[in-house]
Amino acid sequence: MTVAHDDPHVARLFDHLARLVCDGVGDPADLHGQLVELALANSPDVARYWKQVGTGVGIPDTAYKDGGPHLFPDAPVVRVFRTSGTTGSVRGTVRYSAAGLELKRLAVEANARRHLLPDGGERPVVLPFAPSEEAAPDMAIAFDMARIAESCGDPELSAAVVGADGVDFDLLANRLDAAVAEGRPVVLVGATFAFVNICDALEARGRRWELPPGSRMYDGGGFKGRSRVMGVDELRAAVRRVFGIERHGNIFGMTELANMLYDASDTPVGPLGERPKGSHPAGGPKVRDPRTREHLAEGRGLLEVTDLSVLDRPHVLLTGDLGIAGPEGVAIAGRIAGSASRGCSLTLDEMTGGAA
């Protein structure tokens, strides 16, 4: 029987999921089972898919090209995010109810605080290399970066530096100069090729900074842009030259997911030096053998991500990315053969000056 969005069970489930994503309190296995039951009850397409491949196997990201499964058609949609991709490709779409969007907000903010403010210390200046929500309301990365800046950043100096017309280099320089003058650590966060293009432009202008101790960067997205391929260490060297930053990390996110994955270690694993991603209280990455569909403790296969901060659609996603499982986590090494490059990284490559 279909479960309505205003059913008391859904309200209780939301509360339990919120406690898990915010405080790490709860039984992930039990909540996983409840979300599986919800998807089976509310989506005949998901039920048929799981009957064929096994209950709980990730929903392919390609399913969202036509809108994908949405578990609460009876609830008003308050936000729609769309994937980007290659020119002419169909964009994926995910829809959020008010409760689903609130759970996403809680999860993104809690995860960011764990990594950016582990000791609850001074708030850094957070400068997203991404557009503001106003400039890009249908980009999940804009929503996520805004939540990171609001929950972790200094409220006076933090600001998105990419707009509809490209990078606001004057704003970026102003905020960096102010941070240096005040001795405030800076966190630069955004898509990988936004970093590449911004570093290229600043080096061409002869601009560089030595940002205060504690400053760091978190790039997010693939390492294959429209103009070239760049390895992790090559990107980090450029960021070090321009901003004087010695601490680095990578964040993996997808429009179809609610939360993001941060590096678990600094060990190079992937072909471009990709580092392994770890789990968070609401789930994390695994690798499935493409033939047997079994999870692999080590080796290469399809990246699958469990995200217990997803309420409006199935919470396990089978991506088109190559995952490399190992003892420290799962390195994400780009799209598998035959899968088109996609995502916010490509869009921000174009917005920040990458070649078409």
What can you tell me about this protein's structure?
The chain is an alpha/beta fold. Helix content is 34%, strand content 21%. The chain has nine helices and 15 strands. Strands 1, 11, 12, 13, 14 and 15 form a six-stranded mixed β-sheet that branches. It has a five-stranded mixed β-sheet with strand order 4-7-8-9-10, with helices on both faces. Strands 2-3 form a two-stranded antiparallel sheet. It is globular and about 65 Å long. About 3% of the residues have low confidence.
Q: State the secondary-structure class.
A: alpha/beta
Shape: globular
Q: What is the alpha-carbon Rg in Å?
A: 20 Å
Would you list the SSEs in sequence order as H and E? HHHEEEHEHEEHEHEHEEEEEEEH
In short:
By secondary structure, the chain is of the alpha/beta class. The longest helix is centred in the first third of the chain and has 19 residues.
Topology:
Layout: H1 8-23, H2 28-42, H3 44-53, E1 59-60, E2 79-82, E3 93-96, H4 98-116, E4 125-129, H5 140-152, E5 162-163, E6 166-167, H6 169-182, E7 186-191, H7 192-204, E8 216-220, H8 232-243, E9 247-252, E10 261-262, E11 276-277, E12 283-288, E13 299-307, E14 316-326, E15 329-335, H9 344-351
Parallel strand pairs: 1-14, 4-7, 7-8, 8-9
Antiparallel strand pairs: 2-3, 5-6, 9-10, 11-15, 12-13, 13-14, 14-15
Helix pairs in contact: 1-4, 4-5, 7-8, 7-9
